[in-house]
Amino acid sequence: MKSTMIFLLLASAVCPAPVAAQAKFTEVVRVRLLAPLRTDLNRPGDQVTVMVVSPGLFRDDIVEGILAQSRSSGSLTGSSVLMFNFQVLYHGGAEIPVKSLLRSVTNSKGKKNLDEEGRAVRKNNAVKRSVVLAAVCGGITGGVTLNASAALKMAAICGGASLGLTRLAGKGPALTFESGSEFEIEMRNQ
Predict the structure, then answer these.
(1) Of 61, 142, 144, 170, which is the most buried if we count CB atoms within 10 A?
(2) What are 133-173's pLDDT values in tens digits?
């Protein structure tokens, strides 16, 4: 029994828990899209995966989220919208629930606040709207499928106030961000 306790104490000293899992943190990070994010291809419920570029503490960690809304206007004067949230940071072998707020967007060509086609992108962090969106998504899903489980799942995908949805919108037929586009986000663990 004593040898087991000593081993556990030594193991915890040699292999401490990841820094992010030990205490609350808020960090501004730059992340890079690992797959395209496009209103003409992606659908609600699709996974959004990014890799942390900086700072060094989180470099190469993966952050995953869910696409809550994807709408292409189909016209030059209409508004196309992407709405998503980041939910999980994979750091040091740990899965850490996170919340995030978008600070800036840079397309894969290095142009700030523009999508791949050069269309201006407006951003906001739609925390209050996410409550309404979650209720609407859940209600529609439940009404269409008559399945309470599916309704709850869709409400979770669409996000609650605690998840902080990010909304990107732009005039034009679609919004497009290719792999390599970067977002600057303020991320904090829950």
Answers:
(1) 170
(2) 555 655 565 555 566 666 555 555 554 444 468 899 999 99
Return the domain boundaries, the chain: 25-126+164-189
**25-126+164-189 CATH, one of 2.60.450, 2.30.30, 2.40.128, 3.30.360:** 2.40.128
The most distant pair of C-alpha atoms in the chain lies apart, rounded to whole Å, by: 73
Those residues with Cβ within 8 angstroms of residue 177's Cβ, 6 or more apart along the chain or in another chain: 33, 36, 37, 38, 82, 105, 107, 108, 115, 116
Q: Are 47 and 64 in contact (CB under 8 A)?
A: yes
pLDDT digits (tens, 9 = 90+) for 82-102: 999 999 999 999 999 999 999
Q: How far apart are CA 52 and CA 43, in angstroms?
A: 24
* Alpha-carbon span 107 to 14, nearest angstrom: 41
Beta bridge partners of 84: 67, 166
Please give the model's pTM, rounded to 2 decimal places. Answer: 0.71
pLDDT at 8: 37
**Which tokens sit at 169?**
């919108």
